[in-house]
Amino acid sequence: MSRIHRADRARHQGGARRRVAALVPAAVLLAVAGCDAPLSIFSRASDSARSVSYLAWFMIILSAIVFIGVMLLYAFGVRRNRERNPADVDLSERGVGWIVWGGAVMPGIVLLAVFVVGMAAMGRYPEPPPVVTIHVTGHQWWWDVEYEFPNVSQHFRTANEIHIPLGRPARLVLTTADVIHSFWVPQLQGKLDLIPGDTNELRILPERTGVFAGTCAEFCGQQHAHMGIRVIVDDTTTFKQWAAQQLADAQPAAPAVAAGEQLFVGGPCAMCHTVRGTAANGQVAPDLTHVGSRLTIAAGTLPNTLGNLEGWIANAQAIKPGAKMPTLSAYTGPQLRAVAAYVASLK
Ligand SMILES: [Cu+2]
């Protein structure tokens, strides 16, 4: 094969490889930027989530520039020294400047830039005072949620789903009843830990309505992966309606579900769960007063349908092994269905 031919072929292959290599970062960027994935920090829906995503873009682009710069210098060094005999290289004579610049000055500048921009992103707190304070307590493996309003008679409790009003700052006070958990709803805020015996505060100033999924972001035991949280951003009117409905006691049981209520209130369920307006006031499990109005059950594990409620109540351990709700095998099939129908009626 002639030398010219070989060089030609190499150039051709190199071109193809370069084209493919150029496509990879483009595809990654498209995948990251274009998606509206529920757990993506790039589909932001609040002011602080915006600064987190800007910070991420800043770091991605800066790292790309640093990477390309280092690779170019590397190629330049290899090319320049290709003909030299290693034995001829005298380290004391040259190269120290490169080491000082490449090892200290340039990284120093880059890290300082990331530090400054990062501090600015962290410091962003919506200024107006919060209109609602929400106490969130982590449990293995669900979230207790208590609303505090200026008027004490308006406080109420719910679980696993947090409603907040659009355009108003909400203040979340985080703590835990057992191990360390971490509250993370990426489209609305950065992560923050829930620490035993301590409280941490998050503010969220939402910029659009919607249902924003989140998850516990600190490994907390067997069912860590099934410790989902949802933040629902409502317009102000919807939020007020929702809060009024949550504040109310449970409606008296309709005749069709009265048998289920008796089983619930008179049985083991009431030792762990509260249904306000009934004698059930257990304190170690999610408040069920309006569980029928939630989107999911068992901390985002299942959609809230009658069938799933029946399955959960019949055998919680099969759905979420290790969860602190036992499988209650003393019930007959019709009794289970009656209890589930009652629970589903708690809107
Ligand atoms: Cu957790």
SSE inventory with pairings:
Elements: H1 3-34, H2 47-81, H3 96-123, E1 132-139, E2 142-148, E3 156-159, E4 161-165, E5 170-176, E6 181-184, E7 192-194, E8 200-204, E9 210-216, E10 228-234, H4 236-247, H5 258-266, H6 269-272, E11 296-297, E12 302-303, H7 306-314, H8 316-319, H9 333-344
Parallel strand pairs: 1-5, 4-10
Antiparallel strand pairs: 1-2, 2-3, 5-8, 6-7, 6-9, 9-10, 11-12
Helix pairs in contact: 2-3, 5-9, 7-9
This protein binds copper (II) ion.
Could you characterize the architecture of this molecule?
- The chain has 347 residues and is α+β, with helices and mostly antiparallel strands.
- It folds into four domains: 1-34; 39-123; 132-247, Cupredoxins -  blue copper proteins (Immunoglobulin-like); 255-344, Immunoglobulin-like (Sandwich).
- The chain is built from nine helices and twelve strands.
- The chain has helices at residues 3-34, 47-81, 96-123, 236-247, 258-266, 269-272, 306-314, 316-319, 333-344; strands at residues 132-139, 142-148, 156-159, 161-165, 170-176, 181-184, 192-194, 200-204, 210-216, 228-234, 296-297, 302-303.
- The protein has a five-stranded mixed sheet with strand order 3-2-1-5-8.
- Strand 6 and strand 7 form a beta hairpin.
- The radius of gyration is 29 Å and the shape is elongated.
- Bound molecules: copper (II) ion.
- Residues 138, 181, 216, 218, 220, 224, 227 line the site of copper (II) ion.
